[in-house]
Records
---
Amino acid sequence: MLEVTPLGEGWILRHGPDALPAAVPGCVHTDLMAAGVIPDPFLGRNETEVAWVGRRDWTYERELDGSSAQEQTDLVFDGLDTVAEISLDGRPLGTVRNMHRSHRFDVTGLSGRLSVRFRSAYAEAETVRNRLGERPAAYAEPYQYVRKMACSFGWDWGPALVTAGIWRPVRLEHWSTARIARVRPLVTVEEGTGVVELAVDVERTRVEAPLAVRASVAGVRARAEIGGTGGTVRLRVPDPALWWPRGYGEQPLYDVELTLLHGDEELDVWRRRIGFRTVGLDRRGDAHGTGFTLVVNGERLFARGVNWIPDDVFPSRITRARYRERLEQAADAGVDLVRVWGGGLYESADFYDACDELGLLVWQDFPFACAAYPEEQPLRGEVEAEARENVVRLMPHPSLVLWNGNNENLWGFRDWGWEPQLAGDSWGEGYYLALLPRVVAELDPTRPYTAGSPWSGSWRHHPNDPAHGTHHSWEVWNREDYAGYRRSVPRFVAEFGWQAPPAYATLRRALPGEDLAPDSPGMLHHQKADDGNGKLERGLARHFTVPQGDFDRWHYLTQVNQARAVAAGIEHWRAHWPVCAGTVLWQLNDCWPVTSWAAIDGDGREKPLFHELKRLYADRLPVILRTRDGRLELAAVNQAAGDWTGTLTLRRMSVGGEVLGRRSVSLAAGARSVARVGVPNSLVPAGPGEFLVADADGLRAVHFPVPDREVAYPRPQFEVALAPEGITVTARTLVRDLLLQADRLDPSARADRGLVTLLPGEEVTIGVRGWKTPDAERARSALYCVEPTR
């Protein structure tokens, strides 16, 4: 039987003449921080002070004993970041140049000093660039010339902290006769029967040894002979329970076990969990263009999605518990799809395990983003090797429903001036339209592949044409008011978003001692977007009077504006199902404390946007829309499995609290559909002193006809009282977008809701956890709401 010896202990990192303790898995930055050599680069402007680390070569060492009673011993690295020479007592074992794949070396009978010498990723990238020629990109750093997490080099939300190290586990594997080299599980459902086909590759020390495999799943067993280096075993499971995305059903998972046999001797075992389901992508043309609708178990879905970036610039620090926490937050926000963005990683099994269990669909990008990527060697071979390994590695996970070739590179070629700069040089098209679809079709034909995001489906249409395929909506954030989201109905919105700063306590931790202001030195350093603060201010000025010299008010209003902007998009697009079949917010999470588009900040704290997503991504959502001819109507968005019937109450109100008109009408929206109800002209708000309220089954939509800076708000009046596990706020006037910033009470405190609008006489109880000394007056000091323009 195969034996495993973990090699996580006993490593050192060479730093000049010093030998520092090294954590494996880990990276140079975290080891240097632990040794006190560098400060935490997340704090203040320390990022610039540690930039030298990415320009250096680094060496990890430890003793290795490869002796064993078994016939062969392999040294296995699950992940090396990125370019390294591996040697044993000075004897070369091999070289590597890809963070996204594993590496295996034969060390049978060898012992001595194991050395892993990392070359600076900058030096490697610059060498490749000098040999292959310049390729355009969205950023100046040379990330497209090395197979490494692109956002290590910085992004418009992330720091430039170019890592090196043994970032995933390393071990010795001792074995005899044969071992399982690869198992490729094809899981399908055929006329109610679950079919599991396990294609097995083996590696041998003895060519002549007869081999077989024994497999089991859900009480079904099968056996097959292995000829040469491979074979296939097939199992049929009658009437399996289907795996569904959250909100559509349960997530049953089945244990699969495959054992490699030599006679009665068990040589190796492969174990995974699978789920039975079918998945497809409807890309048919129709009167509106070309669709992009995910179909799971025959059910057409409106995808309620978020984009996922690496949860830490130093991904070796992301634990199984942290993955689970972040993905549970996504599920709590109503999310049912997570897109793993192409400037990051193929994540660890812990990520996909959590998605399997939580019912979160996974859209997996291949790691290419915002650049022209050379297709010559050595990159082309590495790209194919990593794709083959990761497609097979991730295949068991039922949550994985879509492979995507790249992020924005097809769009970039057409729109960002790349084509004339390239002058015929390779730029990645051969990866996205040939190599990657070929690999997916060969290895994983059970899942759809799309060449990129955005992508219209072919060069016959513009890559980012909203009428065809996936669309990225960035003109609104970059240049317009968020009302611009309502001007079009894309078939699938794969990226859109609006910035806001992180939570107050996150800023206080990241910028210790700083006198906070939108343009204070630390705030500017933790704002990586091009003209980010300018876009924040211009977006704010369209709706509010921009506070001058009042950071707390600016902080609150920018977070309100983020939630309002995202709501404008999601409400509009959900109301146009099935023409629009999904929204994927940019972005769920952050990798450090930064002003960004995230709903959860770099310290894991939820912004108001996170809580707004709970409303926006709920099964049932009332939306007040203005039609093309200027009328108001209510769209009852019903993504639940049952009909939505009841009474809709419409009220035209003054900002002073007077009901100016009222009407109750019947509401009937079928399952997975949208129903529309016209708003009578008598209930349409007449000016800045009026607004419309729509209530149905405890859900509410409000509509103000003018921007907040033009609304004649009364000065808000409310009472605050302690309640069990929180506070109760009772409104005496209209209170618009009330927010408790619980982290101002205690850095560990969390509120269970975000922005809430109260009419006169209404009350809300806000749950608070982690608050050590509850006090009503202190709570009042942490409450913010929209106030009349001074």
Note: The first helix runs from residue 28 to 34.
---
Amino acid sequence: MPRLTLGLFVAAAMPGQALAAATVPASGYHRAPDAIARILEAATVPVVSVSPDHHMLAIQGRENLPTIANMSKPILRLGGFRIDPATNGQAEVRVQWLNALTLQDVASGRKTTVSLPEGTRFTNASWSPDGKRLAMVVQTADGLALWTASLDGRHRLVADHVSAAFAGMPYEWAPDSASLIVRTVDPTRGPAPVASTTPAGPIVQDSGGRRSAARTYEDLLADAHDEALFDYYFTGLLIRVGADGGAATIVKPAGLWSDFSVSPDGRYLLTERLKRPYSYLLPAEFFPTEIAVSTIAGQPVRTIADRPLADDLPVDFDATVKGPREVSWRSDAPSSLLWAEAQDGGDPKAAVAFHDRLLLQAAPFNAAPVKLADVPKRYERTLWGDDQFALVVDREWKTRTEHRYAIAPVRPGETRLLLTRNYQDRYGDPGAPIVERNAAGHPVMRFTPNRQAVFVTGEGTTNAGAYPFLARMPIAGGEQTRLWTTSAPYYEPVAALLDERGERILTRRESAKLPPNYVVETLGGGKPKQVTDLPDPAPAFAKVTMRTITYARADGLKLSGDLYLPAGYDVKRDGPLPTLLWAYPAEFTDATVAGQTVDGGNRFVRPRGISHLFELTQGYAVLDNPSMPIVGAVGSEPNDTYVKQLQQDAQAAVDAVVALGVGDRDRMAVGGHSYGAFMTANLLAHTDLFRAGIARSGAYNRTLTPFGFQAEQRTYWQATPTYTEMSPFTYANQIKVPILLIHGMADDNQGTFPIQSERMYAALKGNGATVRYIQLPAEPHGYRAMESTQEVLWQMTDWLDRYVKPKRVAAR
């Protein structure tokens, strides 16, 4: 049965360091250093959402970091999900709870506070299609409920006992904004299954000689009792209820309704329902699935797909299921379905002209589906416009290639290639069409008034920085026309168009010194009008300085990183600082793209949670996200030269900060989280650049992830030398400098099971390394509890202060 375990704190040291290590207490949470703790404990900045008509903002207050008591409440880990059995919703670790709601008119600035009862916690807030109400899922004494709030500040209960065990929204607005479809708990389900203390027999799994490779997943079903629990907590009803409450109508009886969607005309309901047999090797997304259409009243119309357990997929990233998949409504039509079907049996390595086919079928769904398009790579998404224009995107992982096609749904089967690009190419990114909710609440592209073009927005990335833009893209093809571009010193992405011609826009403006706030910009002139007044969440960081530095590694590849310096630091006066490099490697197929550098000087940066940037308050320089590209030469896999390239990346970064006079070569530390932790251990094993390392929630032995990891598609048996050389566990005996290992005991990330750090600690300790191993009770891959967060930052600071900050005394 799923269970929660307790945490341990373990320390080991070389004989000469035993006294220092012994001073660390063996239990209890530490408060972070005061300068850090004050920021963590301060109020958080609200989140803002714009209404579909762009007239209103919903300003939603956020809870601060949860307590360890909340994080430690009993949870169930079932089928890849983590749920709270007390609420029948997602576990605390998966939810960002909101606690206040203010509605603000964009034009006048007038604010209306929704008078929620004291202590209210809610999530999953969404606007009705007409922008007149906001729905939200509220935690109650006996579970979850659905409330709506109107523009006058009143709120009302709509439905009790909402079932939010599946990820995603447990409700959807009907197109008329007068009602909602809601998934609720089955009222007839009775008490939860109780595990027997006497086994009924062995757990038997039999492959039957059938190939069934699976990556390493967390939180899987383990036995018959888990299966019973999955049925109990994930089974629900679909009901229809008015936006103001009232009597509910059952639309679908009890079932494992993992997803549902109302057609744009409100006449039909698309559903996905999971079925048995379940898997103990794969999460629920691979379970047998029935995709079907019914009337909005629940009467069956057509089954689109009834696929078996998807346990025969290749391990390649572009592998997919056979038969219809990614079934969705055509947003700009009353009731037409689109889906993709693999033409390669789901295997991207198959030699076929087209890997995917897109099919359309309109109500009443009794005619044969029509081919909308064949695409040469794996289907990614469709952006809908009207009968004359839609945009289809496909992608290929191996080459990082993206194609965009123009199609006219009124002329199915015809495609027109608009562009081919490397989707990692930031400089060449043309942006994407602006997508807004139409009157039915479905996403469609925003056309210019003459419908000859669509509005496009993008990051506008250059080596001088990212300057978001607004443009027109002719649907007939040709160059885009820039209408507006962010001016320095701001970073200002477009949030919404406020008129038909796109001459007034709502943006979210920030700079290095100004926190993000919403602004109305008038194209062609006029003073920007600030709409919100959200505060600086950490004013103590206002005097921290940052600049993006560029440099090159030994083979000439251009690299960059964001160099942060403590408030008040002066290089001439203060000299070189102890420096922390915090990084995360990335794989590329194109050296030109890998070498793109972007100045981040117009971004507003404030640390939250377990951010390494907090070390700036403790006298350290931080080189944040220094480029660590791993580039595949022509025809080769990037990881075949992973260690060599990683060494070159790190050497170049260290040399760069030392050359500036900022970094002290003798007082360098390296750290990272997840794949960054893997990187850290490798750098400590294969270089002598660093005095110490910090590795959080990493994987260190790649034989424990034999069917691929990160960007590696090959299996252990296909690339044994690469797996072996990339595993720092193989070279644990070469790590001679102090390393701090931290891991959440409830890690929920694919491949980073806590046993990775447990075994790495044993290997390091057995080889006499200086190592401290911190296990955080109840924490997932990214640590969330206030107590855990402060503990992590205390441990990081303590480690750096012990092993990096002190200057070495020259030998006499």
Note: The radius of gyration is 27 Å.
